[in-house]
Amino acid sequence: MTMGASLARSANRIVAMVLRHVYILRRSWPRLLELMYWPIVQVLLWGFMTQFLMTNSSWVAQASGVLLAGVLLWDVLFRSQLGVTISFLEELWSRNLGHLFMSPLRPHELCLSLMLIGAIRTVVGIVPAALLAIPLYHYSIFTMGLPLLAYFSLLLVFGWAIGIAITAILLRWGLAAENLAWLMVFALAPISGVYYPIDVLPAWLRPVAWALPSSHVFEGMRDVLFHGTFRVDLFATAVVLDLVYMALAALLFLWSFKVARREGLLLRTGE
């Protein structure tokens, strides 16, 4: 078998896995509505809070849309992670994991398909909320231009890394660790500087915050909103950190898959 034929078959398997979840979404209105529900609810909540603060705080008045931009970008990270883990949980809930790996599907192909469906879920969830903010609050996050694309990509990849890491934990310990899919990413919110500068944190906590790509993204976002400048140093550091976390997540997943296959855990998952 030639290298080209092998890559083509691998790509076909990845596309097949993505299409499987796309068909599930397409046939299930509740799933589609759930994707859009929380971003819209958060835009409504934080949008009205922003309007209130703009009439009562000169700081917020000088940074119109900073809270809305923060909540929308934070939701990119959250929904990217959730898209990966929920797609994997659906395989566990349906007891389908063993069947998948009886096929030629490889671990890295499963990860890539989960990442792609995570990106699809993120776009479906975020875009309606971002568009809704335009008529309601006269704020468009799209005015950030290319920096928005850069920050979106960085948070998407970091969400993938967290999602793959949680998937590895689920693969190793099963549905007993299911709550991590909902809780882990929220532990990062206070130290990511979503709504306030990292300097607000205690001195001992700042190095931890700067070790997260999300902190560099939100600091960079505020520089764009306040000063109209794109911090290349923050962007480059976030790229490196994303690559590190993705590599660590991949290694953890491969280790968990090896253990799960050796101990027969692939056939003992389910609700």
The count of strands amounts to 0
What spatial form do the alpha-carbon principal axes imply?
globular
For the largest beta-sheet, the strand count, sense and barrel status come to:
none
Distance from first to last alpha carbon: 40 Å
Classify the beta-strand content into a percent band: under 5%
Given helix and strand content, the structural type is: mainly alpha
Order of helices and strands: HHHHHHHHHHH
Number of spatially distinct domains: 1
Average of pLDDT = 84
Q: Gyration radius, to the nearest Å? A: 20 Å
Helix content: over 70%
- Stretches where pLDDT is under 50 for at least 5 consecutive residues are none
Count of separate DSSP helical elements:
11
